[in-house]
Amino acid sequence: xxxxxxxxxxxxxxxxxxxxxxxxxxxxxxxxxxxxxxxxxxxxxxxxxxxxxxxxxxxxxxxxxxxxxxxxxxxxxxxxxxxxxxxxxxxxxxxxxxxxxxxxxxxxxxxxxxxxxxxxxxxxxxxxxxxxxxxxxxxxxxxxxx
Length: 146
Ligand code: CA2
Known about the structure:
- Helix content is 38%, strand content 18%.
- It has a five-stranded parallel sheet, sandwiched between helices.
- Helix 4 links the parallel strand 3 (71-75) and strand 4 (97-101).
- It has helices spanning 21-24, 29-43, 55-68, 84-90, 131-145; strands at 4-9, 46-51, 71-75, 97-101, 123-126.
- The protein is an alpha/beta fold.
- Helix 3 (55-68) packs parallel to helix 4.
- The chain has a domain at 88-120.
- Residues 12-13, 15-16, 19-20, 24, 75, 77-78, 80, 101-103, 105, 112 line the site of ligand CA2.
């Protein structure tokens, strides 16, 4: 399999670092991208880092990952808790996909405890802030090397 990775970010994550620093930290999405790029270079991965506020766009990107055989790191934002369409898109792509959340969703409101993505993900990382993205890249690199 190619060593391509798509890092996909869902709705409102473009606001990182500008509001709710107590929940999501002070790093901006550009900061997260910069550390992902550094990590991807070290792992020999080719990285596409993207954000959208639109559910259908996320789904198109999952289809693209399937066609390219690319690994996926995804923070689906609130679509995690609502999107059967995202679940269906991921199911059967056959690509490794790690779900990441900056916050510990299990320590927050009950509506954040359920994920439609987790049952179709290779793994899930929650509550570790931006470091979760880097750990997810480690996991994708290991899976793509098998
Ligand atoms: O903890 C996470 O990474 C989340 O995916 C973030 C989502 C939330 O709906 C999920 O339950 C957990 C929200 C992303 C919104 O990010 C913001 C960042 C700064 C200011 C406002 C929103």
